[in-house]
Each structure stands twice: as C-alpha cells, then as structure tokens.
Specification:
Blueprint lengths: L21 H21 L6 H6 L20 H6 L15 H5 L13 H17 L4 H7 L15 E5 L6 H18 L2 E4 L40 H6 L19 E6 L5 H4 L4 H7 L4 E6 L4 H4 L6 H7 L6 H9 L4 H15 L4 E7 L9 H14 L6 E6 L13 E7 L2 H14 E3 L5 E4 L9 H13 L3 E5 L3 H10 L4 E3 L13 E3 L13 E2 L4 E2 L9 E3 L7 E3 L2
Parallel strand pairs: 1-2, 1-4, 3-4, 5-7, 5-10, 7-9, 10-11
Antiparallel strand pairs: 6-8, 11-12, 13-14, 15-16
C-alpha cells in the first residue's frame, strides 16, 4: 500500500502576548500622572485632594520630615484628638489644654461612635456659618425685633444662660445638656458668659465663637425665671402657644423667642419641655433661651423623636457626659497653667492617684468627725487605701518608700484642710498594714483664686485620678469622674447625726451624672408617673432616690 506523503510539521500560530496590548495603556497612565502636577499648577481653582480622588486618581501625601509629626493614625494623635472627638482645626497655642489634658489621664476605654464624630463635624460647620459675628447671626438677631418667629429660616439658636449663685459644677452639667439638645435640634449653641465665668474656658468650636456678644436684644437674661412673660410655661398657660395639633402649628403664629426654665423649682407646664408634641412646636421657634442648674440629659432620652439619634450617637448610653464634657470643656491657658503646674509638681510622680471629693450640704445632719470616719471606712473596706496599723509608727514605712509602688490621695472640698489634715495625720503617725506609703495632697490657692477658677482647677485635677471617691449628690464630683471616664465610689448619706452609713459607700454601675430633679409628668401616659420605670436605660440614681440617670 502506498503511504501518504508526510506533511511538514507546522507550529501553531503564537498566542497574542499578554503584555502586547498593555504597554500603550501603561504609557497613557504615566503621561496622565506626569501631566497632573502641571494641571494643578495652571488651574486657577486648584482642586482639593477630594476632587482629585473623585477623578479616580489615588494620591498619597508624604510628610516632608519623616521624623516630624506622626500621622493621625499614630497613638499620640489618637489620644490628642480623643478618637476623633476633637477637630484638629484649632491651633494648639490658642488652647493648650485641648490637646494636652488627655495626656494626664490613662487612655479612655470609651471611644466615641463614628456617628457622634460625624455629627460634631457637621455642627462645627453650622456654627461657622451661623455663629456670633456672622452675617446669618446678624440677620437672625433682627427676628427678635418682631413679635413672631419666621418660617424657613437658615439658622435657629439656643442661648444658654447661667443660674445666679449656682456652682460651676452645676453650670457645666447644664451646659453639656444644653449643647446636646442643640445638637439634636440643629440649633446654634450660644453661651451667655457672665463676669464670674469670663476667662475660664477656651472656645470649643473651630473658627467661631460660642460667646453671646454684647447688645443682645433680650435684656436681663440672668433675671429670667419661672414667672417670666416669655417662659414656655406662661406662653402655654396664656394660649400663645398651643400643642393640640403640633404638626399644623406655623412658625409665624409663634413668638420670636421662648424662655425654657429647667431649674430645680420648675413646675408641670415647664416640664412639658420633655414631651414629644411640645418639642415639635418648640422646633418652630427661632430663638430659645434656656436656663438650668440641672443635668437634664436623661430627660432628653425620654423624648421619642430623639430616641434614634441618641442611640446612634451614644450606643453606650452611660458615656454621654464623658464624650460631651471632653469635647466642650477646655480650661483657658491661664487656668491650664495652674492645673498642669500642680499636676507636674505633685501628682505625676505617683503610680496611682486616688481622688476624694467631699461636698457637705446645708442642713446636713452628719458631723465632720462622723463623715471622716465614713471616708476611712469606705477606702479601707473597699481596698482603695491601705489600713493603718495602730501599733506601728510611720517610721516602719521608710524602708519601703524607695521600692513600694506609691499612692497619693488628692482631697478636695470646700473645707479641704479639715479632711485632708486628718487623713494626712493618720498616715503620718501610723504605718500601713501593707507597708505601702500613702501621700495626702490638697490643692492650694483658695485665697488666691476666684471661686470658679479654683473649682475648675480642682475638677480637672480630680479627673486625672485613677480612682474616684465622691460625696453623693456632688456635681463637682460628677464632672471630675465623668471627664475621667471612671465609675466612682459614692459616699452615701447617713439618716441622722449618730448613725453611720451602712455600707459607707457603693461603686456605681454608671459614670453618668444624676438628673436631680426630673419631671414627674409622664408624657407617654399623659399623667404623673415614675419616669425611672419607662425605659431600661433611664433609671433612678444611687445617691438621689427620685433622680434619673443613664445606664448602659
């Protein structure tokens, strides 16, 4: 059989190269990058990094000095900005405490929620647009010359004014609550800074002031009270504001401003502020003036229309004052110098600082001697401070001074020397059973500083303590441990002069301050009721039986 002729073997045609079509694209990309700087340089309106990002180009910015300022993701900057709570847009020299105060505390385990951070940045933009001194503020002032509010306005305002004679601790708690209310209702927060508060705090908002300028058209703000003509309660009673159909109320039918009275003596019509229908109507009043000596934040959680926003801002509800207080309150450079000088000279060298804040109230049935015994019983039983050995003198501790971890006790009170000197004498005369030395500190300068300046210094020093022991009902104590982010030991109030409190103290399960005088009217049930039983996270306080407090 003849064989078929053999065909020469042919290789298959080569596959297209994987890179053959890529090099023109790569060249195009390189040319785009090369042209980008020229485009930026020649552009009259130079795009921002966000504009460039929207073009689909990824831009990495390198610090010219690698050994210089660490990136924002570094632990140092995270601490300085408190997890994003603070904006970096305020220069350090303008307010030293803003970025340095947190360095005196252990890092907070409580991070602000991303939603809270976002809301604060949006508020700052609103304040820049509408705050005192802006064109919108000047236009809004003119509304006060009218008898009525206006609809569709660009900016609405909340003016906070202090109660005469109230302690700085009361005022700070009230301001924190008022700012949260402004945040919830998209109002611009403006503070009436009286002479006794001048120079205490830095401006908290970038590129805008929170201080109410002179010449405000509503005069005698500090004289406003429960019976004022423009108080919300009186406006309701006179039928100048009606809440029968909240959604149907027009701004033009409402007064140009209303005064909200939230002091401890407020009555039921004032308390309707915490009702949903009333908030719907108040939202249409252009200017609100608020005066309070209470931490009324728990009451805001009882308003249904605020529930979702508050839940997103504060998933851990017992951190409200911790975050708002650290955002809002920064001692001025003058006050900060006093704070940091004392902390550096006396507190920084100890491994553990224990704060004892003592407040005695008018009409208290407890003698100072009994109260001191209660403090000692609390700190020894709860192992906060070591017990003394009555059979050993303090010289037995001297050998341990160089090697034993040391503790310091910072005692602050309206009568600091009385309690501090007794505690100092006790540890000076006797050794401790553990051999651990204890130093007793008390801030000085009571005669040299104005009362509010002294109070602010002591509250911030207390906030740098690792453990907090405070008198029940003390708003000064609330501020100190709230800024620190620690759950305090509360010194309970004995029932009479002779009987000791049993137990002498308890540790709270929430670091939130107490709302001492909450409303008695239950808006949901439309009758008086126990508001400590309405929501799981709003319950009664450990130190004030009728008070309300936020719990996680």
């Amino acid at each position: 059989m003849d064989s078929k002729p053999t065909r020469p073997h042919r290789r298959p045609p080569p596959l297209p190269s994987k890179t053959s079509g890529v090099w023109p694209v790569a060249l195009l990309v390189v040319l785009c990058f090369a042209a980008l700087p020229l485009f930026l340089a020649l552009s009259r309106a130079r795009p921002t990094l966000s504009d460039v990002s929207q073009m689909g180009v990824t831009v990495t910015v390198h610090d010219e000095d690698p050994a210089g300022t660490p990136p924002e993701s570094s632990p140092a900057n995270r601490d300085r900005l408190l997890g994003g709570l603070l904006s970096p847009d305020i220069g350090e020299s303008a307010c030293l405490s803003r970025y340095k105060s947190s360095l005196h505390r252990k890092p907070s385990p409580h991070s602000p929620s991303p939603y809270l951070v976002s809301r604060l940045r949006k508020y700052e933009a609103l304040h820049r647009k509408c705050g005192p001194g802006t064109l919108f503020y000047k236009k809004s002032l003119m509304q006060l010359t009218s008898a009525y509010s206006m609809g569709l306005v660009e900016c609405t305002y909340l003016v906070w004014t202090p109660c005469g004679g109230s302690h700085l601790g009361d005022r700070m708690l009230s301001m924190a609550s008022a700012f949260l209310y402004a945040l919830l209702t998209h109002r611009v927060f403006v503070v009436h800074v009286t002479d006794d508060m001048a120079g205490l705090f830095c401006e908290p908002f970038p590129a805008a002031s929170w201080e109410l300028p002179a010449g405000f058209l509503v005069h005698n703000l500090t004289q406003l009270g429960r019976g004022s003509e423009h108080s919300y309660a009186n406006l309701l009673g006179a039928k100048k504001i009606k809440t029968d159909d909240p959604a149907g109320v027009r701004s033009e039918s409402l007064p140009s401003y209303a005064y909200v009275h939230l002091e401890h003596d407020y009555q039921q019509l004032d308390q309707l502020f915490f009702c949903d229908d009333d908030q719907t109507v108040l939202a249409k009043v252009n200017w609100l003036i608020l005066r309070s000596n209470l931490y009324f934040t728990p009451g805001l959680f009882l308003v249904p229309q605020f529930e979702d926003e508050l839940r997103w801002m504060f998933p851990a509800r017992d951190t409200v004052f911790h975050h708002i207080g650290r955002y809002l309150f920064h001692p001025s450079n003058k006050v900060w110098e006093l704070i940091t000088r004392y902390h550096t000279s006396y507190m920084a060298k100890f491994e553990e600082n224990i704060g004892i804040q003592i407040t005695t109230f008018a009409g208290s049935k407890v003698s100072s001697e009994e109260y001191f015994k209660q403090i000692v019983a609390c700190t020894s039983q709860e192992k906060i401070l070591p017990e003394i050995d009555p059979n050993a003198t303090s010289s037995a501790n001297e050998a341990a001074l160089a090697t034993t971890p040391s503790k310091a006790v910072l005692v602050s009170s309206a009568q600091p020397s009385e309690y501090a000197e007794k505690l100092k004498a006790m540890y000076y005369e006797h050794a401790t059973v553990t051999g651990e030395p204890v130093s007793v500190l008390q801030p000085a300068g009571a005669g040299k500083q104005a009362p509010n300046q002294k109070a602010l210094v002591e509250m911030f020093l207390q906030s740098y303590c690792d453990v907090s022991v405070v008198s029940g009902r003390s708003t000064v104590g609330y501020v100190g441990h709230g800024l620190a982010g620690v759950k305090p030991w509360l010194l309970l109030t004995p029932t009479n002069r002779t009987a000791s409190a049993n137990p002498p103290c308890i540790q709270t399960t929430s670091m939130e301050p107490c709302f001492h005088a909450p409303p008695s009217y239950d808006c949901r049930a439309k009758k008086d009721g126990d508001l400590g039983a309405v929501l799981r996270h709003v319950r009664h306080c450990e130190d004030v039986g009728d008070g309300l407090k936020l719990y996680h």
